[in-house]
Each structure stands twice: as structure tokens, then as C-alpha cells.
Amino acid sequence: MTSFNDTSSVLSFLKSRKSGSAKAMGPPGPDAAQLAEILGIAVRVPDHGKLTPWRFVIFEGEARTSIGEVFAKRYRELHPSHGEEPLAFQRGLFTRAPTVIGVVSRAAPHPKIPEWEQQMSAAAVAYNIELAAAAMGFQSQWQTDWVAYDREVGKAIGLSETERFAGFVYIGTSTAPLEDRPRPDPQALVTRWSGA
Ligand SMILES: Cc1cc2nc3c(=O)[nH]c(=O)nc-3n(C[C@H](O)[C@H](O)[C@H](O)COP(=O)(O)O)c2cc1C
User: Residue 143 falls within a domain, yes or no?
Assistant: First the structure.
């Protein structure tokens, strides 16, 4: 494992990481080499049983527009009385960022490894994408929104009956200054086991 010559800069990076906002994200996004590097980092996560219980669906360029048609059609089916404005928003959902990575959980029954553990590994994958993107100077936001949960959308994207989205990670460059949010005090979340 690589050791750090400058531990303090790695720690300051981790201490200051925050999400971008898909609402304020534009180009540039990662190029092909950077995206490959992000995915290489994404798969370097704890994975009990080495099951690789996740995979990726990449949305870039025109694909973001064509998936928008799927979203809009499905949204119209679900909300027939809604007007054109929300429809336009749904159509443009993935065009808000240059790159959107769908992280698919492939968790499945296994004799030894609970599905919960496989799902948690997918969450680690999504977060590693965020860390890698941030390390390259991009902003990212992990979103689920309704599109991650809708089975028809999932089917259109090619998910099997047992697969589900851990989420979509939007990656790009922030078009507005990023505000941090108040963070929980970790000490307030700690108890110490001191024996029975
Ligand atoms: C599984 C998951 C799903 C999320 N879905 C959404 C979402 O649909 N919309 C949204 O605005 N934020 C969503 N978030 C929250 C953002 O990813 C992010 O945590 C938030 O913008 C705060 O940023 P921070 O990472 O700097 O705390 C989700 C987070 C997680 C872990």
C-alpha cells in the first residue's frame, strides 16, 4: 500500500470533503482516462467474500438526454395530471452533470454473506467514487431520487429483477461556491463499552 509523504494534506482533504450540488454542476467532468481511474478506485472497497456485488452504468453525452426521455415518459405515467414544467425537469435530470455513474447493487442471497453486507459494500463503492472525483478536483453528488427506485426505469436501464441502484453519482465542476453544512459532533455519537 502506498504510504503518504504528506499525511497532513491527505487528512485535510478528508476533513474538508463535501458534496457538490447536481443543481449547480457543469463541465468539465472527468475525461475517459480520469473516469477509468475513478472506477479503478471505486472497486477498491471492502467486499466480504470477494463477491463483487455491484456494477456500474455510465451516462455521458447524448445518453443523458436519451435516458431523460425514459424518465419523462415514466413520470408522465406516474403523474398524469402534472404539467410540462416538472416533465422538463425530469427530462433534464442527468444533463445537469457531464457524467453520471449509476452504482448498481447486485446483492443476492448467499450461504455465508448476508445481503446487508453486500449492500453496504455498494455504498462504499459510491463513496469511493466521490472521494476519487474530489481528489481529482471535481465535485460530485450521490443522489437516488425517484429514478433509483422505480422498477420500470431500472428495467429500461437493464437492471435485473434482483438488482437495484445504490444511487447515481453526479460528477462535474461546480458552477457556484460550495457551502458546507453543519457536521455532527462525533463525540456526541460515541458510547464506550465498559463491561457488563
Ligand atoms: C443513499 C443516498 C441517497 C441520496 N439521495 C439524494 C437525493 O436524491 N437528493 C439529494 O439532494 N441528496 C441526496 N443524498 C445526499 C447527498 O448525497 C449529500 O450527502 C448531500 O448533498 C450533503 O452533502 P455532504 O456529502 O457534503 O454531506 C443522498 C445521500 C445518500 C447517502
Answer: yes
